[in-house]
Design a protein that fits this description.
Elements (H helix, E strand, L loop, with lengths): L1 E5 L5 E8 L3 E7 L2 E7 L8 E7 L3 E2 L3 H8 L11 E11 L4 E10 L2 E16 L6 E12 L19 E15 L2
Antiparallel strand pairs: 1-4, 1-11, 2-3, 2-11, 3-6, 4-5, 5-7, 7-8, 8-9, 9-10, 10-11
Length: 177
């Protein structure tokens, strides 16, 4: 088993959520850190712990960022991190796994299943380090995490802000030698 440190310069967490039921709003968190213990011979023994800095949010609109970070939504002042800690890894087809774990958003922890693709290892032509890559996705209901703003039904039907949040986490991690 090899320890991998998440490379913050090459990792990002992103999300998509419906606005007024007609369009997706997308955003990203640029500060992702953590550690992965990766066992290429027996992927089921691998583990991951990741942390996202909520204040690294960018949706491309500063006013919207401020609202999402406010106490009406993520409440970044009170809950400055989003965390994930795996509880099991279920290998699937080559280069794929399902990773069960505990996701904490807005101070609420819920079990989630991530669909994961993994790539590598690859030796960098720049610094010589060996890296692996992971792309994980899941869908969660924001209300399960206590984020209720925008949940009142609109007159035309639907919600101001959708309940389902599509999450994608792209990670590059350096293997320790």
């Amino acid at each position: 088993m090899k320890k991998c440190t998440i490379d913050a310069d090459h990792s990002v967490a992103s999300f998509a959520i419906r606005h007024l039921t007609i369009a997706y709003v997308r955003g990203m968190f640029s500060k992702v850190s953590g550690c992965i213990y990766y066992d290429a011979d027996d992927v089921s023994r691998s583990t991951v712990e990741a942390e996202i800095d909520v204040n690294s949010l960018s949706t491309g609109v500063k006013k919207r960022d401020a609202h999402v970070l406010s106490d009406e939504m993520l409440d970044a002042a009170k809950y400055p991190t989003i965390t994930f800690k795996s509880t099991s890894v279920l290998p699937e087809a080559k280069g794929r796994a399902r990773v069960q774990g505990d996701l904490t958003i807005h101070g609420v922890t819920r079990p989630v299943m991530l669909d994961v693709q993994y790539f590598g290892p690859v030796k960098s032509p720049f610094g010589g380090e060996t890296s692996v890559g992971f792309s994980a996705s899941t869908k969660v209901n924001r209300e399960d995490f206590g984020i209720m703003w925008g949940s009142d039904p609109l007159a035309e039907g639907g919600l101001m802000t959708g309940r389902d949040v599509e999450i994608t986490i792209d990670i590059e991690a350096d293997l320790e030698q």
